[in-house]
Amino acid sequence: MGRRAVVGTVASLAFVAGIAFAVRSASVQGAELLFDSATWLVWLSPFAGVLAAGVTKRKDPVIEGERVLRHDDAAILEHWAHGIGTAVLLVSGIALGFLFVPSLLGAGAPVWAAMNVHFVAVVVFLFGTFYYGANTALALKRFAEHLPTRDAIDYTRRHYGLLLGFKKLTFPPERKYFESEKMAFILALVSTVVIIATGLVKVAAHAIDVPGWLLAVATPAHD
C-alpha cells in the first residue's frame, strides 16, 4: 500500500470514528452538544490548517512512469477534507432544516446527533479550507491557475456543446483546469467565504452573547 493510500485510510478511519463518537455522545444522558462542550475545536481547526500549510513542501506536477501526477499530496488532502466536510455539512444541515424547510428529524436525540455530526464536519471542513487557503497564499501561482481567463465563455460553450451533441463545435485547448471549472471556482470561493463567516457567528453564540440582529442576518445567510 502506497503512502497516499495509508494516509487516506487513516484519515478516513479518523473521520468515521469522529462521526461515530458524535452520534453516540448524543444519546448519553446529560451530555452537552459538541458545539457547546468542544467549541474550541472549531477555532483551533483553521489555525491547524494554516500551521500545516506552513510546514508543507509542495510539489509541481510530475510524470512517474506511465502516470501523470497533476496534484501533490497536499492538494489531495485539502481537496478531500474540504469536499467530504462540505458533503456531510450539506446532508446534516438539510436534515436539521433550513430557511423555511422544517427539520426532517423531529426533536430529541436525532437532532442532537445531527448537530454533533455537523460539528465534526465543520472541524474537517475548516481544516481543509484553511489548509488550501494558506497553501495558496504561499504560492499565488496556484491561485491564478483557478481563475477564469478571457476564453472562459467560449471554451465552456464549446466544451458543453460537444457533450450535448453539437458536433460542429471543436473541443477547446483546455489547460490544467477547464474554464468551466474556473468559473465554478469563483462561485465556490464566494459561497465558502459567506458560509464560514456566518457559521462562525453561529458557533460564537454557543460561547458568548451575540447580538440578536447579527444572528438574524447570519442564520438565513448561512442557510
UniProtKB/TrEMBL annotation:
GO terms for biological process: respiratory electron transport chain. The keyword Membrane applies. One of its GO terms (cellular component) is plasma membrane. It holds the Pfam family Ni_hydr_CYTB. It is a multi-pass membrane protein. Residues 70-222 form the Cytochrome b561 bacterial/Ni-hydrogenase domain. It is found in: Cell membrane. GO terms for molecular function: electron transfer activity. The chain crosses the membrane at residues 38-56, 77-101, 113-134, 184-205. SUPFAM superfamilies: Transmembrane di-heme cytochromes. The keyword Ubl conjugation does not apply. Its main location: membrane. Keywords: Cell membrane, Membrane, Transmembrane, Transmembrane helix. This is Cytochrome b561 bacterial/Ni-hydrogenase domain-containing protein. It comes from Dethiosulfatarculus sandiegensis. The lineage of its organism: Bacteria, Pseudomonadati, Thermodesulfobacteriota, Desulfarculia, Desulfarculales.
